[in-house]
Prior knowledge:
The chain is of the alpha+beta class. Among the domains are: 202 residues, no CATH class; 51 residues, no CATH class; 61 residues, no CATH class. Helices cover 39% and strands 15% of the residues. It contains 14 helices and 14 strands. The strands form four sheets. Strands 4, 5, 6, 7, 8 and 9 form a six-stranded antiparallel sheet that branches. α4 crosses α6, α7 packs antiparallel against α8 and α11 packs across α12.
Amino acid sequence: xxxxxxxxxxxxxxxxxxDKGMNPLTARIVEPMSFEANVFKNHLWYRxxxxxxxxxxxxxxxxxxxxxxxxxxxTNGIDFRKIHTGLPSMIIDILSDIxxxxxxxxxxxxxxxKQIWEDIEKSMPSDFFKDAFKQAMYLGxxxxxxxxxxxxxxxxxxxxxxxxxxxxxxxxxxIVKIIFKLPYMISDKEYxxxxxxxxTGITYELINDRYEKENLYDFExxxxxxxxxxxxxxxxxxxxxxxxxxxxKGRGKSLFDGKEDAFDSxxxxxxxxxxxxxxxxxxQYIPTQVIPKDGATGNLLKPNVxxxxxxxxxxxxxxxxxxxPRIEVVNGQIDTNGLLAAYTTALxxxxxxxxxxxxxxxxxxxxxxxxxxxxxxxxxxxxRSKIIKVAEKAIPKIIxxxxxxxxxxxxxxxxxxxxxCDFGEYANPSFEAVVETMAKTRPGVPIMSIxxxxxxxxxxxxxxxxxxxxxxxxxxxxxxxxxDLPTINEFDELGGIVPNEDDYMQGMVE
Length: 510
Protein backbone atom coordinates (compact mmCIF):
# COMPACT_ATOMS: atom_id res chain seq x y z
CA UNK A 1 0.00 0.00 0.00
CA UNK A 2 2.86 2.40 0.88
CA UNK A 3 4.44 1.81 -2.53
CA UNK A 4 1.25 2.97 -4.21
CA UNK A 5 1.21 6.22 -2.17
CA UNK A 6 4.92 6.91 -2.94
CA UNK A 7 4.24 6.36 -6.64
CA UNK A 8 1.31 8.79 -6.51
CA UNK A 9 3.38 11.46 -4.72
CA UNK A 10 6.12 11.25 -7.31
CA UNK A 11 3.63 11.58 -10.17
CA UNK A 12 2.09 14.69 -8.55
CA UNK A 13 5.57 16.29 -8.16
CA UNK A 14 6.39 15.58 -11.78
CA UNK A 15 3.05 17.04 -12.90
CA UNK A 16 3.51 20.22 -10.79
CA UNK A 17 7.19 20.55 -11.90
CA UNK A 18 8.36 21.40 -8.38
CA ASP A 19 11.96 22.61 -8.08
CA LYS A 20 13.89 21.03 -5.23
CA GLY A 21 15.86 24.19 -4.43
CA MET A 22 17.16 27.51 -5.63
CA ASN A 23 20.32 27.90 -7.63
CA PRO A 24 23.46 28.10 -5.46
CA LEU A 25 24.51 31.62 -4.53
CA THR A 26 27.42 32.97 -6.51
CA ALA A 27 29.22 36.08 -5.26
CA ARG A 28 32.34 37.74 -6.58
CA ILE A 29 34.51 39.17 -3.80
CA VAL A 30 37.50 41.35 -4.61
CA GLU A 31 40.27 41.59 -2.03
CA PRO A 32 41.25 45.24 -1.62
CA MET A 33 44.83 44.28 -0.66
CA SER A 34 47.30 41.58 -1.59
CA PHE A 35 49.32 39.80 1.06
CA GLU A 36 52.33 42.06 0.47
CA ALA A 37 50.16 45.19 0.73
CA ASN A 38 48.65 43.93 3.99
CA VAL A 39 52.14 43.32 5.42
CA PHE A 40 53.20 46.82 4.33
CA LYS A 41 50.12 48.29 6.02
CA ASN A 42 50.92 46.50 9.31
CA HIS A 43 54.48 47.76 9.07
CA LEU A 44 53.20 51.34 8.73
CA TRP A 45 51.01 50.95 11.81
CA TYR A 46 54.03 49.82 13.80
CA ARG A 47 56.20 52.66 12.47
CA UNK A 48 53.52 55.05 13.66
CA UNK A 49 54.29 57.99 11.37
CA UNK A 50 50.99 59.91 10.85
CA UNK A 51 52.18 61.34 7.53
CA UNK A 52 52.87 57.84 6.18
CA UNK A 53 49.49 56.55 7.38
CA UNK A 54 47.71 59.46 5.70
CA UNK A 55 49.57 58.93 2.43
CA UNK A 56 48.90 55.18 2.42
CA UNK A 57 45.18 55.32 3.14
CA UNK A 58 44.49 58.21 0.77
CA UNK A 59 46.21 56.32 -2.06
CA UNK A 60 44.11 53.12 -1.83
CA UNK A 61 40.45 52.34 -2.40
CA UNK A 62 38.99 50.27 0.43
CA UNK A 63 35.73 49.76 -1.52
CA UNK A 64 33.77 51.24 1.41
CA UNK A 65 33.66 54.86 0.33
CA UNK A 66 36.98 55.78 1.92
CA UNK A 67 35.32 56.74 5.19
CA UNK A 68 38.22 55.88 7.48
CA UNK A 69 39.72 58.63 9.59
CA UNK A 70 43.15 58.36 7.97
CA UNK A 71 41.53 58.55 4.52
CA UNK A 72 39.56 61.70 5.32
CA UNK A 73 40.59 64.97 3.69
CA UNK A 74 39.34 68.52 4.21
CA THR A 75 36.85 69.55 1.51
CA ASN A 76 35.59 72.89 2.87
CA GLY A 77 38.93 74.58 3.33
CA ILE A 78 39.01 73.94 7.09
CA ASP A 79 42.01 71.84 7.98
CA PHE A 80 41.97 69.49 10.93
CA ARG A 81 44.79 67.86 12.78
CA LYS A 82 45.35 64.09 12.58
CA ILE A 83 47.15 62.61 15.58
CA HIS A 84 48.50 59.08 15.87
CA THR A 85 48.66 57.84 19.45
CA GLY A 86 51.42 55.25 18.87
CA LEU A 87 49.32 52.56 20.57
CA PRO A 88 50.07 49.72 18.06
CA SER A 89 53.84 49.97 18.46
CA MET A 90 53.45 50.29 22.22
CA ILE A 91 51.50 47.01 22.34
CA ILE A 92 54.18 45.13 20.38
CA ASP A 93 57.09 46.60 22.35
CA ILE A 94 55.54 45.83 25.74
CA LEU A 95 54.59 42.28 24.75
CA SER A 96 58.10 41.55 23.46
CA ASP A 97 59.59 42.95 26.66
CA ILE A 98 57.44 40.92 29.04
CA UNK A 99 58.13 37.75 27.03
CA UNK A 100 61.85 37.89 26.27
CA UNK A 101 63.07 39.73 29.36
CA UNK A 102 62.03 36.60 31.29
CA UNK A 103 63.77 34.14 28.94
CA UNK A 104 65.99 31.78 30.91
CA UNK A 105 69.36 30.40 29.83
CA UNK A 106 69.34 27.70 27.18
CA UNK A 107 69.92 24.13 28.30
CA UNK A 108 72.09 21.83 26.14
CA UNK A 109 72.59 18.10 26.24
CA UNK A 110 76.39 18.57 26.26
CA UNK A 111 78.82 21.32 27.26
CA UNK A 112 80.60 21.36 23.89
CA UNK A 113 77.41 22.36 22.07
CA LYS A 114 76.79 25.08 24.65
CA GLN A 115 80.27 26.54 24.11
CA ILE A 116 79.89 26.52 20.32
CA TRP A 117 76.54 28.29 20.55
CA GLU A 118 77.96 30.93 22.88
CA ASP A 119 80.66 31.64 20.29
CA ILE A 120 78.04 31.83 17.52
CA GLU A 121 75.84 34.12 19.62
CA LYS A 122 78.65 36.65 19.95
CA SER A 123 78.51 37.27 16.19
CA MET A 124 74.74 37.83 16.27
CA PRO A 125 73.04 41.18 16.87
CA SER A 126 72.11 41.90 20.46
CA ASP A 127 68.52 41.00 21.39
CA PHE A 128 68.27 39.02 18.16
CA PHE A 129 65.40 36.79 19.28
CA LYS A 130 63.42 39.67 20.77
CA ASP A 131 63.73 41.75 17.60
CA ALA A 132 62.89 38.79 15.35
CA PHE A 133 59.73 37.90 17.25
CA LYS A 134 58.78 41.56 17.51
CA GLN A 135 58.71 41.77 13.72
CA ALA A 136 56.87 38.46 13.43
CA MET A 137 54.21 39.73 15.83
CA TYR A 138 53.21 42.72 13.71
CA LEU A 139 54.04 41.26 10.28
CA GLY A 140 52.49 37.87 10.96
CA UNK A 141 55.44 35.63 10.20
CA UNK A 142 59.00 35.50 8.91
CA UNK A 143 62.01 33.21 8.91
CA UNK A 144 65.62 33.08 10.10
CA UNK A 145 68.40 32.23 7.67
CA UNK A 146 72.13 31.87 8.25
CA UNK A 147 74.77 33.42 6.02
CA UNK A 148 78.56 33.22 6.01
CA UNK A 149 80.85 36.27 5.93
CA UNK A 150 84.40 35.07 6.68
CA UNK A 151 85.63 38.67 6.89
CA UNK A 152 83.16 39.41 9.66
CA UNK A 153 82.92 36.14 11.55
CA UNK A 154 84.07 32.54 11.41
CA UNK A 155 80.61 31.47 12.52
CA UNK A 156 77.26 31.50 10.68
CA UNK A 157 75.41 34.80 11.15
CA UNK A 158 71.68 34.67 11.78
CA UNK A 159 69.38 37.09 9.95
CA UNK A 160 65.63 37.51 10.24
CA UNK A 161 63.50 38.27 7.19
CA UNK A 162 59.93 39.48 7.54
CA UNK A 163 56.80 38.18 5.86
CA UNK A 164 57.26 40.46 2.83
CA UNK A 165 60.59 38.77 1.99
CA UNK A 166 59.68 35.15 2.71
CA UNK A 167 57.45 32.58 1.03
CA UNK A 168 56.50 29.12 2.26
CA UNK A 169 55.60 26.05 0.24
CA UNK A 170 53.58 23.29 1.87
CA UNK A 171 53.03 19.62 1.19
CA UNK A 172 50.28 17.91 3.17
CA UNK A 173 50.29 20.77 5.68
CA UNK A 174 54.06 20.63 6.24
CA ILE A 175 56.56 23.25 5.12
CA VAL A 176 58.85 21.78 2.47
CA LYS A 177 60.44 24.99 1.16
CA ILE A 178 61.37 28.31 2.73
CA ILE A 179 62.05 30.87 0.00
CA PHE A 180 63.89 34.09 0.79
CA LYS A 181 63.41 36.91 -1.73
CA LEU A 182 66.57 39.02 -1.79
CA PRO A 183 66.35 42.20 -3.94
CA TYR A 184 69.26 43.29 -6.16
CA MET A 185 69.73 46.30 -8.42
CA ILE A 186 71.94 45.50 -11.44
CA SER A 187 72.44 48.00 -14.29
CA ASP A 188 69.43 50.02 -13.15
CA LYS A 189 67.23 46.92 -13.29
CA GLU A 190 65.58 45.20 -10.38
CA TYR A 191 66.20 41.49 -9.77
CA UNK A 192 65.03 39.11 -7.09
CA UNK A 193 67.39 36.37 -5.94
CA UNK A 194 65.35 33.51 -4.54
CA UNK A 195 67.24 31.49 -1.95
CA UNK A 196 65.34 28.22 -1.55
CA UNK A 197 65.95 26.24 1.65
CA UNK A 198 64.90 22.61 2.01
CA UNK A 199 65.84 19.78 4.33
CA THR A 200 68.51 18.65 1.87
CA GLY A 201 70.20 21.91 0.94
CA ILE A 202 69.99 25.40 -0.58
CA THR A 203 69.33 26.29 -4.22
CA TYR A 204 68.99 29.64 -6.03
CA GLU A 205 66.83 31.24 -8.72
CA LEU A 206 67.15 34.71 -10.27
CA ILE A 207 63.98 36.53 -11.34
CA ASN A 208 64.00 39.72 -13.43
CA ASP A 209 61.56 42.63 -13.31
CA ARG A 210 59.27 40.81 -15.76
CA TYR A 211 59.08 37.79 -13.40
CA GLU A 212 61.13 35.67 -15.78
CA LYS A 213 63.95 33.35 -14.75
CA GLU A 214 67.50 34.39 -15.56
CA ASN A 215 70.72 32.40 -15.65
CA LEU A 216 72.31 33.12 -12.31
CA TYR A 217 75.90 32.87 -13.53
CA ASP A 218 75.43 35.32 -16.39
CA PHE A 219 75.93 38.07 -13.84
CA GLU A 220 79.23 38.90 -12.23
CA UNK A 221 77.56 39.64 -8.90
CA UNK A 222 76.56 35.98 -8.46
CA UNK A 223 79.70 34.16 -9.55
CA UNK A 224 80.50 33.16 -5.98
CA UNK A 225 77.01 31.80 -5.27
CA UNK A 226 77.02 28.02 -4.93
CA UNK A 227 74.26 25.56 -4.24
CA UNK A 228 74.56 23.50 -1.08
CA UNK A 229 73.56 19.88 -0.66
CA UNK A 230 73.98 17.70 2.43
CA UNK A 231 73.19 14.05 2.88
CA UNK A 232 71.73 14.48 6.37
CA UNK A 233 68.28 15.98 6.57
CA UNK A 234 68.31 19.21 8.57
CA UNK A 235 67.05 22.74 8.04
CA UNK A 236 69.32 25.72 7.43
CA UNK A 237 66.38 28.12 7.91
CA UNK A 238 63.65 28.24 10.54
CA UNK A 239 60.19 29.83 10.17
CA UNK A 240 58.59 31.96 12.88
CA UNK A 241 54.81 31.95 12.40
CA UNK A 242 52.52 33.68 14.90
CA UNK A 243 49.01 32.22 14.63
CA UNK A 244 47.27 31.30 11.37
CA UNK A 245 45.85 33.83 8.97
CA UNK A 246 42.21 33.13 8.03
CA UNK A 247 42.66 35.23 4.89
CA UNK A 248 46.02 34.13 3.47
CA LYS A 249 46.46 30.37 3.55
CA GLY A 250 49.72 29.13 4.99
CA ARG A 251 50.70 32.50 6.44
CA GLY A 252 50.80 33.82 9.96
CA LYS A 253 48.34 36.21 11.55
CA SER A 254 49.60 39.60 12.65
CA LEU A 255 48.46 40.91 16.02
CA PHE A 256 47.21 43.94 14.06
CA ASP A 257 44.97 41.91 11.75
CA GLY A 258 41.36 42.79 12.53
CA LYS A 259 42.41 45.74 14.68
CA GLU A 260 43.06 48.39 11.98
CA ASP A 261 39.55 49.87 12.21
CA ALA A 262 39.84 50.01 16.01
CA PHE A 263 43.22 51.78 15.79
CA ASP A 264 41.75 54.17 13.22
CA SER A 265 38.78 54.97 15.48
CA UNK A 266 41.03 55.44 18.50
CA UNK A 267 43.18 57.95 16.62
CA UNK A 268 40.00 59.72 15.51
CA UNK A 269 38.61 59.91 19.06
CA UNK A 270 41.86 61.31 20.42
CA UNK A 271 42.25 63.77 17.53
CA UNK A 272 38.68 65.01 18.04
CA UNK A 273 39.37 65.50 21.73
CA UNK A 274 42.44 67.61 21.01
CA UNK A 275 40.54 69.51 18.29
CA UNK A 276 37.74 70.22 20.78
CA UNK A 277 40.26 71.59 23.26
CA UNK A 278 41.60 73.91 20.58
CA UNK A 279 38.16 75.05 19.38
CA UNK A 280 36.88 75.69 22.90
CA UNK A 281 39.71 77.83 24.19
CA UNK A 282 38.75 81.16 25.70
CA UNK A 283 38.01 83.63 22.88
CA GLN A 284 38.07 87.41 22.92
CA TYR A 285 35.54 89.13 20.64
CA ILE A 286 37.15 92.50 19.86
CA PRO A 287 35.73 95.39 17.83
CA THR A 288 37.73 96.36 14.78
CA GLN A 289 39.03 99.63 16.23
CA VAL A 290 40.69 97.94 19.20
CA ILE A 291 42.25 94.95 17.44
CA PRO A 292 46.02 94.86 18.04
CA LYS A 293 48.12 96.20 15.20
CA ASP A 294 51.48 95.25 13.80
CA GLY A 295 54.03 97.70 15.16
CA ALA A 296 56.09 97.66 11.96
CA THR A 297 53.39 98.03 9.29
CA GLY A 298 50.38 99.23 11.25
CA ASN A 299 48.19 96.49 9.82
CA LEU A 300 45.62 94.67 11.94
CA LEU A 301 46.85 91.40 13.37
CA LYS A 302 45.01 88.39 12.00
CA PRO A 303 43.40 85.96 14.44
CA ASN A 304 45.46 82.84 15.08
CA VAL A 305 43.70 79.58 14.28
CA UNK A 306 45.66 77.74 16.99
CA UNK A 307 45.07 79.93 20.04
CA UNK A 308 41.94 81.87 19.00
CA UNK A 309 42.83 84.77 21.27
CA UNK A 310 40.58 87.30 19.53
CA UNK A 311 37.83 87.39 16.93
CA UNK A 312 36.95 90.50 14.98
CA UNK A 313 33.49 92.06 15.40
CA UNK A 314 32.30 93.94 12.33
CA UNK A 315 29.47 96.54 12.30
CA UNK A 316 28.78 99.42 14.68
CA UNK A 317 31.93 100.24 16.59
CA UNK A 318 30.45 102.92 18.83
CA UNK A 319 29.14 106.42 17.94
CA UNK A 320 28.22 109.54 19.81
CA UNK A 321 25.42 108.84 22.24
CA UNK A 322 25.89 105.08 22.01
CA UNK A 323 27.63 102.63 24.30
CA UNK A 324 31.37 102.45 23.77
CA PRO A 325 32.72 99.27 22.11
CA ARG A 326 33.44 96.41 24.49
CA ILE A 327 35.71 93.39 24.46
CA GLU A 328 33.74 90.24 25.19
CA VAL A 329 35.45 87.18 26.63
CA VAL A 330 33.67 83.86 26.00
CA ASN A 331 34.68 80.60 27.64
CA GLY A 332 34.28 77.43 25.61
CA GLN A 333 32.35 74.36 26.72
CA ILE A 334 33.66 70.83 26.19
CA ASP A 335 31.60 67.66 26.43
CA THR A 336 34.21 65.95 28.55
CA ASN A 337 32.06 62.95 29.45
CA GLY A 338 31.13 62.25 25.84
CA LEU A 339 34.72 62.57 24.62
CA LEU A 340 35.99 60.37 27.46
CA ALA A 341 33.37 57.70 26.72
CA ALA A 342 34.32 57.66 23.02
CA TYR A 343 38.03 57.51 23.91
CA THR A 344 37.56 54.69 26.42
CA THR A 345 35.31 52.63 24.13
CA ALA A 346 37.76 52.91 21.22
CA LEU A 347 40.66 51.99 23.50
CA UNK A 348 38.84 48.90 24.80
CA UNK A 349 38.28 47.72 21.23
CA UNK A 350 41.98 48.18 20.42
CA UNK A 351 43.18 46.17 23.43
CA UNK A 352 40.43 43.53 23.49
CA UNK A 353 41.93 40.07 23.27
CA UNK A 354 45.51 41.40 23.09
CA UNK A 355 46.70 43.07 26.24
CA UNK A 356 45.43 44.56 29.47
CA UNK A 357 45.34 48.37 29.91
CA UNK A 358 47.20 48.01 33.20
CA UNK A 359 50.06 46.27 31.38
CA UNK A 360 50.48 49.40 29.27
CA UNK A 361 50.20 51.64 32.34
CA UNK A 362 46.80 52.98 31.22
CA UNK A 363 44.26 53.73 33.95
CA UNK A 364 40.93 54.38 32.24
CA UNK A 365 38.63 53.14 35.01
CA UNK A 366 39.84 54.25 38.41
CA UNK A 367 37.02 52.40 40.18
CA UNK A 368 38.45 48.97 39.37
CA UNK A 369 39.69 47.11 42.43
CA UNK A 370 42.75 44.89 42.59
CA UNK A 371 40.76 41.75 41.73
CA UNK A 372 39.29 43.35 38.60
CA UNK A 373 42.75 44.46 37.49
CA UNK A 374 44.06 40.90 37.90
CA UNK A 375 41.19 39.58 35.80
CA UNK A 376 42.01 42.04 33.03
CA UNK A 377 45.64 40.95 33.19
CA UNK A 378 44.56 37.53 31.89
CA UNK A 379 44.36 39.01 28.38
CA UNK A 380 48.09 39.74 28.58
CA UNK A 381 48.77 36.25 29.92
CA UNK A 382 46.89 34.59 27.03
CA UNK A 383 48.78 36.58 24.39
CA ARG A 384 52.09 36.02 26.17
CA SER A 385 51.44 32.28 26.38
CA LYS A 386 50.69 32.14 22.65
CA ILE A 387 53.98 33.86 21.82
CA ILE A 388 55.94 31.68 24.26
CA LYS A 389 54.45 28.53 22.74
CA VAL A 390 55.90 29.52 19.36
CA ALA A 391 59.23 30.67 20.84
CA GLU A 392 59.82 27.46 22.79
CA LYS A 393 59.70 25.52 19.51
CA ALA A 394 61.34 27.97 17.11
CA ILE A 395 64.34 29.15 19.17
CA PRO A 396 65.76 25.64 19.83
CA LYS A 397 65.39 24.89 16.09
CA ILE A 398 67.37 28.03 15.25
CA ILE A 399 70.14 27.05 17.66
CA UNK A 400 70.24 23.47 16.35
CA UNK A 401 70.39 24.76 12.76
CA UNK A 402 73.42 26.89 13.66
CA UNK A 403 75.16 23.92 15.30
CA UNK A 404 74.47 21.67 12.30
CA UNK A 405 75.85 24.30 9.91
CA UNK A 406 79.01 24.54 12.02
CA UNK A 407 79.45 20.76 11.88
CA UNK A 408 79.04 20.81 8.07
CA UNK A 409 81.56 23.64 7.69
CA UNK A 410 84.14 21.82 9.81
CA UNK A 411 83.57 18.44 8.14
CA UNK A 412 82.17 16.91 11.31
CA UNK A 413 79.62 14.08 11.14
CA UNK A 414 76.00 14.94 11.67
CA UNK A 415 74.94 15.01 15.32
CA UNK A 416 71.60 15.16 17.06
CA UNK A 417 71.31 18.06 19.50
CA UNK A 418 68.84 18.63 22.28
CA UNK A 419 68.25 22.25 23.25
CA UNK A 420 65.64 23.52 25.71
CA CYS A 421 64.31 27.06 25.93
CA ASP A 422 61.95 28.12 28.71
CA PHE A 423 60.62 31.33 30.19
CA GLY A 424 59.92 32.66 33.66
CA GLU A 425 56.54 33.40 35.15
CA TYR A 426 54.69 36.67 34.69
CA ALA A 427 52.33 38.60 36.96
CA ASN A 428 52.89 36.32 39.96
CA PRO A 429 51.25 37.52 43.20
CA SER A 430 53.49 39.80 45.23
CA PHE A 431 55.26 38.48 48.32
CA GLU A 432 52.97 40.56 50.53
CA ALA A 433 49.87 39.06 48.88
CA VAL A 434 51.22 35.52 49.31
CA VAL A 435 51.98 36.11 53.01
CA GLU A 436 48.55 37.60 53.58
CA THR A 437 46.82 34.67 51.87
CA MET A 438 48.83 32.04 53.75
CA ALA A 439 48.24 33.82 57.06
CA LYS A 440 44.49 33.53 56.50
CA THR A 441 44.77 29.76 56.00
CA ARG A 442 46.59 29.34 59.37
CA PRO A 443 45.42 32.14 61.65
CA GLY A 444 47.66 32.72 64.66
CA VAL A 445 50.29 30.24 63.48
CA PRO A 446 53.69 31.43 62.15
CA ILE A 447 54.12 30.52 58.48
CA MET A 448 57.83 31.38 58.27
CA SER A 449 60.81 30.56 60.38
CA ILE A 450 62.84 33.35 61.94
CA UNK A 451 65.72 32.63 59.54
CA UNK A 452 63.45 32.86 56.47
CA UNK A 453 61.94 36.10 57.77
CA UNK A 454 65.39 37.64 58.17
CA UNK A 455 66.36 36.61 54.64
CA UNK A 456 63.27 38.30 53.21
CA UNK A 457 63.72 41.37 55.40
CA UNK A 458 67.44 42.07 54.91
CA UNK A 459 68.34 40.12 51.76
CA UNK A 460 71.99 40.72 50.84
CA UNK A 461 72.35 43.84 52.98
CA UNK A 462 73.48 41.70 55.94
CA UNK A 463 75.92 38.79 55.94
CA UNK A 464 75.05 35.27 57.10
CA UNK A 465 76.94 35.57 60.40
CA UNK A 466 74.94 38.64 61.39
CA UNK A 467 71.69 36.92 60.43
CA UNK A 468 72.52 33.90 62.57
CA UNK A 469 73.30 36.10 65.60
CA UNK A 470 70.09 38.04 65.07
CA UNK A 471 68.08 34.81 64.79
CA UNK A 472 69.63 33.57 68.03
CA UNK A 473 68.79 36.82 69.84
CA UNK A 474 65.18 36.74 68.65
CA UNK A 475 64.77 33.13 69.76
CA UNK A 476 66.13 33.96 73.22
CA UNK A 477 63.67 36.85 73.51
CA UNK A 478 60.82 34.50 72.65
CA UNK A 479 62.00 31.83 75.09
CA UNK A 480 63.00 29.48 72.32
CA UNK A 481 66.26 28.42 74.05
CA UNK A 482 68.09 25.34 72.83
CA UNK A 483 70.83 23.50 74.69
CA ASP A 484 72.74 20.44 73.60
CA LEU A 485 72.32 17.33 75.76
CA PRO A 486 75.43 16.53 77.81
CA THR A 487 77.69 13.76 76.61
CA ILE A 488 78.47 10.72 78.72
CA ASN A 489 81.72 12.25 79.96
CA GLU A 490 80.03 15.53 80.81
CA PHE A 491 77.33 13.59 82.69
CA ASP A 492 80.05 11.84 84.72
CA GLU A 493 81.72 15.14 85.58
CA LEU A 494 78.41 16.42 86.93
CA GLY A 495 78.38 13.51 89.42
CA GLY A 496 76.16 11.14 87.56
CA ILE A 497 76.62 7.41 87.13
CA VAL A 498 78.08 6.30 83.84
CA PRO A 499 76.57 2.95 82.90
CA ASN A 500 78.45 0.20 81.22
CA GLU A 501 78.44 0.59 77.42
CA ASP A 502 76.75 -2.78 76.87
CA ASP A 503 74.14 -2.04 79.53
CA TYR A 504 73.62 1.43 78.00
CA MET A 505 73.06 0.03 74.49
CA GLN A 506 70.79 -2.71 75.90
CA GLY A 507 68.72 -0.06 77.65
CA MET A 508 68.43 1.89 74.40
CA VAL A 509 67.19 -1.23 72.66
CA GLU A 510 64.62 -1.93 75.36
